[in-house]
């Protein structure tokens, strides 16, 4: 048994390192290459965006505004029927201070009065507020 030698504790880490090296080193090299590629992509993107922003600021370019709409044409035969029905809802909660302003703005639209419905959504706990709402609406629409 003199010719046989067994690995000692001091040689064991060196052997495991030699066994892992063929696996770990190529994997780490691949990861470095992937990270380098991603860094180059980020750099190219930043340079591209810098060029685009410089071009926009230099030539003061603005995006075109394209609106696809047509004005409503007056049709004598249809009259107000050409306008769609509109429902305006005004949510309130015992608002004594701003109810006139809110209702006035809703009623001030240039829309045919027979094609608009204005609803004041409030369940007032104070009965005087309900009377104020109704009297204000009657003044505006003159029922």
TrEMBL record:
GO molecular function, one term: mannan synthase activity
Main subcellular location of this protein, as a coarse class: Golgi
Keywords: Glycosyltransferase, Golgi apparatus, Membrane, Transferase, Transmembrane, Transmembrane helix
Localization terms from the record: Golgi apparatus membrane
Presence of the UniProt keyword Thylakoid in the record: no
A Gene Ontology cellular-component term: Golgi membrane
Transmembrane segments: 30-56
Coiled-coil region: none
Family matches, as InterPro entries: Nucleotide-diphossugar_trans (IPR029044)
Protein name: Glycosyltransferase 2-like domain-containing protein
Species: Nyssa sinensis
């Amino acid at each position: 048994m003199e010719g046989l030698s067994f690995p000692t504790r001091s040689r064991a880490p060196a052997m495991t390192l030699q066994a892992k090296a063929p696996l770990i080193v190529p994997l780490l090299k691949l990861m470095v290459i992937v990270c380098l590629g991603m860094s180059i992509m980020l750099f190219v993107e930043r340079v591209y965006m810098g060029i685009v922003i410089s071009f926009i600021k230099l030539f003061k370019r603005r995006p075109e505004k394209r609106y696809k709409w047509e004005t409503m044409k007056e049709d004598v035969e249809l009259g107000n029927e050409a306008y769609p029905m509109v429902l305006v809802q005004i949510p309130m909660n015992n608002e004594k201070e701003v109810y006139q302003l809110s209702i006035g703005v809703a009623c001030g639209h240039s829309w045919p009065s027979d094609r608009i419905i204005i609803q004041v959504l409030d369940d007032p706990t104070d009965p005087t507020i309900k009377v104020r709402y109704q009297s204000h609406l009657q003044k505006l629409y003159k029922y």
